[in-house]
């Protein structure tokens, strides 16, 4: 069934089966250990490793939920986001001998979860491609060179859509839309360094620290 495009992907993500499986996993199943060479991670592996809260090389749905709340998503959105991400990437990245129902994401195999309609700043193995990242700002940062407005991020997402792969359209909406909402400044700009941090996961660390600091002040 086609998914109707909604502004910034903060519409409800209706995935009742995946959500049910998520909570069965969170309160029922465990998982095996995996080896990840952190010193030689690709940018894509670094991008997702923030959500590997216990650093065992495997990201469970509950860890994605926890990490999503930690960077500022609401509980409801974090639950649905974790369901979507793990429903799509768990089966793809799980080795054949991994415990069922294959909802955990294995960082070592994260490249298998690459999707279309993206910026090209990850290559096929998940390595960062600086030239493609720079193209984002050369082509779309029209108001100021080191930041993107709401409309410029949307323009970039639309420009990268693969018309032959409509199933890949939702991913960039969720990824870029979510980070824009959390990381934009008071003038509505997503700064270039924060956009760069999407690719190696450093923006997630920054957002978690910002949220923790604001909660500590309150």
TrEMBL record:
Q: Which GO terms describe its molecular function?
A: calcium ion binding; monooxygenase activity
Secretion signal span:
1-32
Entry keyword annotation includes ATP-binding = no
Top-level taxon in the UniProt lineage = Eukaryota
Keywords per UniProt: Signal
Query: InterPro entries, per this entry?
Result: Caleosin-related
Keyword Metal-binding attributed: no
* Family per similarity comment: Belongs to the caleosin family.
Q: What is this protein called?
A: EF-hand domain-containing protein
Q: What is the lineage of its organism?
A: Eukaryota, Viridiplantae, Streptophyta, Embryophyta, Tracheophyta
Which gene is transcribed and translated to give this protein? Answer: LOC100840663
């Amino acid at each position: 069934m086609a998914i109707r495009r909604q502004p910034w992907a903060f519409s409800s993500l209706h995935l009742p089966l995946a959500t049910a499986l998520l909570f069965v996993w969170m309160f029922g199943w465990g998982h095996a250990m995996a080896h990840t060479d952190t010193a030689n991670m690709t940018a894509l592996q670094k991008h997702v490793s923030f959500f590997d809260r216990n650093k065992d090389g495997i990201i469970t749905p509950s860890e994605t939920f926890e990490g999503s709340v930690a960077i500022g998503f609401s509980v409801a959105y974090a639950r649905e986001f974790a369901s979507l991400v793990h429903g799509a990437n768990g089966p793809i990245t799980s080795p054949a001998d991994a415990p069922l129902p294959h909802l955990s994401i294995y960082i070592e195999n994260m490249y298998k979860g690459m999707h279309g309609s993206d910026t090209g700043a990850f290559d096929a193995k998940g390595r960062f491609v600086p030239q493609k990242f720079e193209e984002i700002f050369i082509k779309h940062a029209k108001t100021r060179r080191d930041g993107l407005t709401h409309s410029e991020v949307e323009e970039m997402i639309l420009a990268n859509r693969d018309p032959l792969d409509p199933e890949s359209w939702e991913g960039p909406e969720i990824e870029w839309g979510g980070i824009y909402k959390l990381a934009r400044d008071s003038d509505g700009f997503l700064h270039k360094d924060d956009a760069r941090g999407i690719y190696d996961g450093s923006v997630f660390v920054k957002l978690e620290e910002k949220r923790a600091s604001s909660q500590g002040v309150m």
